[in-house]
Write a structure and sequence with these properties.
Layout lengths: L2 H7 L4 E6 L4 H13 L5 E5 L2 H14 L8 E3 L5 H10 E6 L4 H4 L1 H10 L2 E3 L5 H18 L2 E3 L7 H16 L4 E12 L4 H13 L3 H8 L22 E2 L6 E4 L3 H14 L9 E9 L1 H18 L5 H8 L11 H6 L1 E10 L4 E8 L6 H16 L7 E2 L2 H4 L1 H11 L2 E4 L1
Length: 410
Amino acid sequence: MTDREQRRTRAREFDLVLFGATGFTGRLVAEYLVKKRPSLRWALAGRSLDKLERVRNELAALEPSAKELPLVAGDSLDKKAMDGLASRTRVVCTTAGPYARYGSVLLGACAEQGTDYCDLTGETHWVREMIDAHHARAVETGARIVPSCGFDSIPSDLGVLLLHEQLAAKGGRLAEAHYRVRRMKGGASGGTIASGLYAAERMKDPAVRRVMADPFSLSPEGAPERKGHGDWLRPRKDPDTGRWLAPFFMAPVNTRVVRRSNALLGYAYGREFRYDESIDVGRGVAGMARAAATSAGMALSGAVVFGPVRKLAERFLPAPGEGPSREERESGSFEIELLGVGTAGERVRARVGATQDPGYGATSWMLGESALCLAEDALPERGGLLTPASCMGMKLVERLRAAGMTFQAG
């Protein structure tokens, strides 16, 4: 039996370990899992045993069997502890960010141990570092390492996959895809803000800036020519609808993930495939004004990263562990429309959405179902630093539909 087969078939104590369970998003994912799979062989993990016990008590009020949940305490920077954690479970699901600061040791342990892994990162530069450091070893051990399993970047990645499936069923092939945010309402947690500030702080490094500027920064060697694939940074009109479009702040993350999926799927969307993301802000003068204001706001937000402006902003932003209330999460929503154009000019559409706050309510569904998909579903036997579409594909789409999200083709 090969090293890979031994690692993949070795008996494990747990099917799933949720690391970062004491954080704001971690608690939401724990709540989702305990309601969805109370009999799953899983454990709560994090740095503080006392905090883990408090989370377990809160979960037991929702589902009495949760009082028996095992707890695994360990520091994310302690290699021995993370190696031990990864060796005990088939899947690790982690919400402990910023991942560039707290996630590298755990991801590396999973790659080494042949343990499947999913997270919520939107830190493109860190994912590139992890690909370079661990992709080859994860291929050897069979570990399916799947970053960006939340609002970054499941709606984008699986939405484009839906377009591809529609065209492929007709014998066609995608030439381009356009992602349009039609509606988005939600709040922010302290942990997400901290991750964003840390990621922006790293932009002071020229090497990080080069990664972030490269539209194929997550793609394997031999990616298509970069020219013409850059991010939209200014207002523009949609040539198909005449509606005004503003740049989408998550596009520099999502577009790189979609392009990596295309490469990992053997360029199923074609080597000339083009993809972009924008916010649809309406028609006429009002739409133009909203597009200009959104663009200006994105440019201004960069000032928060540096000097006294950042320190002032941090005084008023949520602290790690804080976030939107249950009422705010449940009143949130998002709706995204994707338009696909085939090589022969065919047009297909898809809609992705949820009646939950995109960054927390819906994200806890997306990450929870990604973890369950890795733990329970028959997936292709391929290891490496993968993407939601290239690893879980339509199986995850079906899970998310069953959970209450919209993934509508046509």
